[in-house]
Amino acid sequence: LFDFVAGGADDEVTVTTNRTAFASLSLRPRMASEYMKPNLATSVVGQAISIPVLTAPCGFLRIVHPDGEAGVARAAAAEGSVSIVSAMAATSLEDVAAATPADARPWFQLYALGGIAGADQLVDRARSAGYRALVITVDTPVPGNRERDVRNAIPMPLSVNLSSAVRLGPSMLAHPRWLYRFIRDGMPTKLPNTLGLAIDGARITQEHATRLMVTDPPAWPAIERIRRRWGGPFLVKGVLTAEDARRCLDIGADGIVVSNHGGRQLDSVAATIDALPEVVDAVDGRADVLLDGGVERGTDVIKAVALGAKAVLIGRAHVWGLAVAGERGVSEVLRILRDELVRDLRLMGHPDITTIDRSAVQLRSDGPHRSNP
Ligand SMILES: Cc1cc2nc3c(=O)[nH]c(=O)nc-3n(C[C@H](O)[C@H](O)[C@H](O)COP(=O)(O)O)c2cc1C
User: In a 3-state reduction of DSSP, which class is residue 238?
Assistant: First the structure.
């Protein structure tokens, strides 16, 4: 499970560069500023958040800890953040929504489970359950080549059968507390959002639904139709180029998430902090731009916002919190980031996250962050 969460595609080049690109970007603090109480509150697609950090959609979280997706959604709501719930959640989208207060429902991340017909059904269910925005992930036409999972022979979707139990048994026994909780939680390895999906009125199996995700994925015209069917705030996740950013604008997206799936899909694509300026320039204020990939520190958030992101998503960082202490662990991760951001903004001499701009980072004349091309 550690490898499933931590790992990426191929040689994990992009997993690494997501972090090193943040590290190679320097901040430009201003000294001796007048005291102002640091402000972290902002808005994304018209919704207020008290911290510019959302939790990224991550599948199968109940395997990590029984609090799972519902625990993440509750923690995010309690911290004034937003949880984006994966279609691949191990808890049904209705149950996750019901676990949160009515005025702080999460956002739903759509995969075309069951193909385009299935996507339509998931969109309708997400609307009925009260989700406040829809995020469609577009960088997953096929699963990435995650060799740690291949080496560990982790079947996707995850499942436990006799042979996997024998293979993974020693490792499971070495983690008795995890194993106890996992068994008590009913070994949640299924994808409950696939239950009830139907094609031409006939129910389909989980296996059929996940196969259709690969053979019947929505392209731009279908994505535009899905946006209209949804009718609320709509974001596209997995954009790395100006060309695709313009397509998002063409179909009327309210938000764009610059993401390389945490380096888990196509390896050797740009680090997201390096791809961000190109997307921000193409969007030119016509949609909100968000970023994920390698965000672990308050200073990472400041760098992303300085280069034009309205907010960031954290993937693995919140999953580690969940693994350690369930819902409480996710709250703690968000609190740590909040504390870091407050301290870092004071140190930057710029106490308002909403007015940070490119002058907050050292732009390299040879780098993707150059300010005046
Ligand atoms: C365990 C795990 C599962 C994920 N599952 C999904 C998913 O179901 N849908 C999706 O759009 N992205 C998924 N992602 C990608 C995240 O949403 C996000 O883009 C990525 O984790 C950000 O990088 P970071 O982990 O470095 O913060 C997953 C990531 C991880 C680590």
Answer: strand
